[in-house]
TrEMBL record:
Coiled coil: none annotated. InterPro entries: NAD(P)-bd_dom (IPR016040), NAD(P)-bd_dom_sf (IPR036291), NAD(P)-dependent_oxidoreduct (IPR051783). It comes from Amycolatopsis echigonensis. GO terms for molecular function: aldehyde dehydrogenase (NAD+) activity. It comes from the Bacteria. This is Nucleoside-diphosphate-sugar epimerase. GO terms for cellular component: cytoplasm. SUPFAM superfamilies: NAD(P)-binding Rossmann-fold domains. Residues 7-144 form the NAD(P)-binding domain.
Length: 303
């Protein structure tokens, strides 16, 4: 196959490219800025239909590994910015891919859409603009692609690992914290986790199978206490992570939501409802049995 990867300079995009090449497929890496390993500089969110169509000519499939993540914060409504980053470029890209005769596609999304699907009573999409944008992204992608172009949605949880100078952005303040002399505390709850390489493996599997499924990806399920302890050990500062009751966490999120309201800031994940995410066990059935210890070590020593 010949696959075009949008966001090919990012953490996940680089691992998708590596896995494709490892299996003998041809690749084209597209990114907004020129850097080593990028075959073509193009901002998909601003590109014309003709530019996208020309970029896709001769390719069997396409991967969208770009977009805006849940840390999007700014003044005023965040929803239009999330739609511009996650929905509009995917629709334009898959419209061009369909016309170019592509036979497979994959979009890297979020595991929050999985939990909203299986636990509608949690109301995640209603509470969080980011989750709504990922839901809309998947729906619009498939409507645009049509029945002849299956689109797999890779539902990505917390990711560990590195790719050149890229690290998971969520990990930056956490690693700084576990390296410090500050005592470590963690509330109840936890998350599914995977390595960046695991995302690459799952994405290429989906492309080779021409899958049109929603594919939640996990290699391990980690309690917060376990995650922080393993990061601290990997960073050379091993110590006990003490359990924290839920009430101060809930209070901090309520206060954060109030302060955001005063300043006019709106994040992708609504702060006052974050306890409904972080105090739950957001666990997935692993798609392959593997430890993320190596990826945790990479993340902890990358800076």
């Amino acid at each position: 196959m010949k696959i075009l990867v949008v966001g090919g300079s990012g953490l996940l995009g680089q691992h998708v490219l590596d896995e494709l090449r490892k299996r003998g497929h041809e690749t084209t890496a597209i990114a907004r800025a020129a850097r080593e390993g990028v075959d073509r500089t193009l901002d998909v969110s601003k590109a014309s239909h003709d530019e996208l169509r020309e970029a896709l000519d001769g390719h069997d499939g396409v991967v969208f590994a770009g977009g805006m993540d849940d840390r999007a914060v700014g003044r005023g409504p965040v929803e239009p910015r999330l739609r511009a980053g996650n929905v509009a470029p995917v629709a334009a890209l898959l419209r061009a891919a369909r016309e170019a005769g592509c036979t497979r596609a994959a979009v890297l999304g979020s595991y929050y859409t999985y939990f909203d699907r299986v636990h509608p009573e949690w109301g995640l999409a209603a509470k969080h603009p980011y989750v709504r944008s990922r839901q809309e992204q998947a729906r619009v992608a498939r409507e645009t692609a049509g029945p002849g172009l299956p689109v797999a949605v890779i539902e990505v949880p917390f990711v560990f690992g590195v790719a050149e100078d890229r690290v998971p952005q969520w990990s930056v303040p956490i690693v700084k914290w576990v390296r410090s002399n500050t005592p470590l505390f963690a509330p109840a709850g936890g998350t599914a986790a995977t390595s960046a390489r695991g995302v690459g493996v799952a994405t290429v599997d989906a492309l080779e199978q021409a899958s049109g499924a929603d594919i939640p990806v996990a290699e391990e399920n980690l309690q917060w206490t376990d995650m922080f302890a393993r990061l601290a050990a990997a960073a050379g500062r091993p110590r006990r992570v003490r359990p924290m009751p839920s009430w101060p966490v809930r209070g901090a999120f309520k206060l954060g939501g109030f302060l955001n309201g005063l300043t006019g800031k709106q994040p992708g994940l609504t702060v006052r409802h974050m306890d409904g995410l972080l105090l739950r066990e957001l666990y997935l059935e692993p798609f392959r049995r593997a430890t993320v210890d190596d990826a945790i070590r990479e993340t902890a020593v990358a800076r």
